[in-house]
Predict the structure.
Amino acid sequence: MRTKVAVPKHLKGLPKRLKALRLKRKLTQTELADIIGIPYFTILRLEGGINQPSYPILLALVRVLDTTTDYLLMGRKP
């Protein structure tokens, strides 16, 4: 059985912000995953709040979605 780790409060909005940015760019989960070079289920799990992005994936998301790490992770607008 896995131990559930509490997600820091500021990261709880990450799935919603990620999905909103993806939809704003008119990308499907599969298209975003293909651009970044990761399996589509990784995007599915990030948007579902199941996983948190690794540093390389975070940087790729920021680049592709034309945003900042501050906004994606904490909701701070640039």
